[in-house]
From TrEMBL:
Its EC number is 1.2.7.4. This is Carbon-monoxide dehydrogenase small subunit. Residues 2-76 form the 2Fe-2S ferredoxin-type domain. The lineage of its organism: Bacteria, Bacillati, Bacillota, Clostridia, Eubacteriales. SUPFAM superfamilies: 2Fe-2S ferredoxin-like (SSF54292), CO dehydrogenase ISP C-domain like (SSF47741). It comes from the Bacteria. Keywords: 2Fe-2S, Iron, Iron-sulfur, Metal-binding, Oxidoreductase. It comes from Fusibacter tunisiensis. CDD domains: fer2. GO terms for molecular function: anaerobic carbon-monoxide dehydrogenase activity.
Length: 152
């Protein structure tokens, strides 16, 4: 049977290769940090890393991750960069209900891993695939800017 790595553990791919990766993560594996919201790839709540690149797991058929490495927020929280992102989000007041936070964290990581300094417009563009209904985005942008200042 075909497999993929989910948070460092080998997982057998279900027979139905068209099932959404999101469903395999949440239903089959019980990892609920990856959120389900729009089901159309518009909100970013279901963002995961596939081979260290961000994807909306609601749009990915599980057959597309055979032989790949998938990382959810549960595993990402073990990384040192997560701790830095978390600290900046808290410091900037960028977390309210928390529903969008896992996707925002993943998108922030994708932006920061380039190692480049990004303008506010770049930050807004990088996070534009993530919807937040609580914070108004300004505090989230501030958190990312705090992280960039830390690297200078």
């Amino acid at each position: 049977m075909e497999k993929f790595k989910l948070n460092t553990q080998e997982v057998e791919v279900p027979k139905d290769l068209t099932r959404r990766l999101l469903d395999v993560i949440r239903v089959d594996q019980g990892l609920t940090g990856t959120k389900e919201s729009c089901q159309e790839g518009e909100c970013g709540a279901c963002m995961v890393l596939i081979d260290d690149e961000i994807y909306n797991s609601c749009l990915v058929p599980v057959g597309n991750v055979i032989g790949k490495s998938v990382e959810t927020i549960e595993q990402f929280k073990e990384r040192e960069i997560y701790k830095r992102i978390e600290e900046a989000f808290v410091k900037a007041g960028a977390v309210q209900c928390g529903f969008c936070t896992p996707g925002m964290v993943m998108a922030t990581y994708a932006l920061l891993k380039t190692g480049e300094k990004h303008s506010l417009e770049d930050v807004k563009l990088a996070l534009s695939g993530n919807l937040c209904r609580c914070t108004g985005y300004q505090t989230i942008f501030k958190a990312v800017q705090l992280l960039q200042e830390e690297v200078e």
